[in-house]
UniProtKB/TrEMBL annotation:
<feature type="compositionally biased region" description="Basic residues">
    <location>
        <begin position="59"/>
        <end position="70"/>
    </location>
</feature>
<protein>
    <recommendedName>
        <fullName>Sulfotransferase</fullName>
    </recommendedName>
</protein>
<feature type="region of interest" description="Disordered">
    <location>
        <begin position="35"/>
        <end position="76"/>
    </location>
</feature>
<dbReference type="Pfam" id="PF13469">
    <property type="entry name" value="Sulfotransfer_3"/>
</dbReference>
<dbReference type="InterPro" id="IPR027417">
    <property type="entry name" value="P-loop_NTPase"/>
</dbReference>
Length: 419
């Protein structure tokens, strides 16, 4: 496929389809334009047409005879692109609620390490708006990956300099956000969350994604695009604000919880220089055992458990200094003290909260996740020899955060004895 046609197709399709659709288009070199709004007289321009090798399969003369006087000329791909970019620019002047221009803290860590319950506990504080599972950084990574794949296949991505695509960090540093990129980020976030709401095997994730999507407003999001400040910090905050508005959450301190934030700490710190991190830690014996319920194979569970620790920049004093490591077991054993340490880290004074959770998402999961029986429910499936083997595979992490006595108690835990 000629690179010029690939570029035109990419520009048209990205605002309507996910990354897989674009790549399919580029491979097959064929695209059918989505139906346009009927022009006066009822004609729909090129709704059934297809472009291949740079030209339309329908002869131009035949198309001219099919039109009657007063009907609009069928739109080209370039015209469609210009029309959509014009729509984006019009949104710049629309009115919307004043939303956050930043994200103050991010919760990260391995899956099943207590990131969700920690975010929910913080969200219960009046000064904190802590949202769970928005995956705003994961979606940014996916958009960056899409851009890179299009460029590697010889296409062009509007407004993107290939020199800025060496890494996600370089992309965030040097690539300005265009109206088109701003639009793409919204669409990828919306559609991937929509897919997750139907494909996830975790009930709370399904509930969260559906609750979030119902409150999204594209026009409000587009109104946040600022040509004078085309930064990714502004675009990501605009998307995060849609999650905030969806849940009607409010607070002075805004935070986001997704385990995979651990993979993007340097990128986050680049976007938000004053950001703070809470890195959740769970003992590898119970953490890996819990992950085995999802990944089945112990080796896969171990890799998933270790991934956030492998990516954490322990040699970066700036990141380390902004990170509070919180053990899930401390939340179970010493909740008030642990909450106070998180308050000191983030800059608020914890208060005892009674009554309904102030966010619509995950409120019913807080109590269930703070029970020891639930904490050990996966680990009790393994005997002491198997637990010891899991510990040996993750000895470096366990010995860094846990004493020998704490590890021995977890390896030797017996449900009957605890009861």
């Amino acid at each position: 496929m000629p690179s010029s046609l690939a570029a035109r197709i990419t520009r048209m399709a990205i605002s309507d389809r996910l990354a897989t659709r674009i790549l399919l288009i580029l491979r097959n070199s064929v695209i059918a334009e989505p139906p346009l709004s009927p022009a006066p007289g009822g004609h729909v321009g090129r709704s059934q047409g297809a472009w291949q090798s740079g030209s339309c399969t329908t002869p131009r003369r035949r198309r001219r005879r099919s039109r009657t006087r007063g009907q609009a000329r069928p739109s080209s791909l370039t015209t469609i692109l210009r029309r959509r970019v014009s729509m984006v620019r019009n949104y710049e002047t629309s009115e919307g609620p004043v939303m956050t221009d930043r994200i103050d803290f991010f919760i990260a860590g391995s899956e099943r390490s207590g990131t969700t319950v920690t975010g929910a506990l913080l969200d219960k504080q009046p000064e904190v708006c802590g949202l769970q599972g928005t995956t705003v950084m994961t979606r940014l990574e996916h958009l960056y990956g899409l851009v890179c794949r299009v460029i590697r296949q010889g296409g062009e991505f509007e407004g993107v300099d290939p020199a800025n695509c060496d890494s996600l960090l370089e992309f965030v540093k040097h690539q300005p956000v265009t109206p088109f990129l701003h639009t793409c980020y919204y669409n990828i976030t919306f559609y991937e969350n929509l897919m997750n709401s139907s494909l996830s095997d975790v009930t709370k994730d399904v509930f969260a994604h559906q609750a979030y999507l119902k409150g999204f407003r594209f026009d409000r999001y587009m109104a946040r695009f600022d040509p004078a400040n085309p930064s990714w910090a502004n675009t990501v905050a605009a998307m995060f604000s849609e999650f905030v508005e969806s849940t009607e959450s409010r607070g002075r301190i805004y935070g986001e919880q997704t385990p995979d934030n651990a993979l993007h700490l340097k990128v986050i710190q680049r976007m938000y220089p004053d950001v703070k991190f809470i890195f959740m830690v769970r003992h590898p014996v119970t953490g890996v055992a819990s992950l085995c319920d999802r990944y089945r194979q112990v080796s896969d569970a171990v890799n998933q458990y270790r991934k956030p620790f492998v990516h954490f920049p322990f040699n970066d004093p700036e990141i380390v200094g902004r990170t509070l490591f919180v053990k899930f077991e401390d939340i179970l054993n010493h909740r008030e003290v642990t909450l106070q340490s998180m308050g000191d880290h983030l800059g608020f004074t914890p208060t005892e909260i009674e009554g309904e959770h102030n966010s619509k998402v995950f409120s019913q999961y807080v109590g269930k996740s703070l029970e020891w029986d639930r904490y050990f429910r996966s680990a009790v499936k393994y005997n002491e020899v198997e637990r010891t083997a899991i510990y040996e595979k993750n000895k470096d992490i366990a010995d860094l955060f846990y004493s020998a006595d704490e590890t021995a108690a977890i390896i030797g835990y017996q449900a009957e004895a605890a009861a």
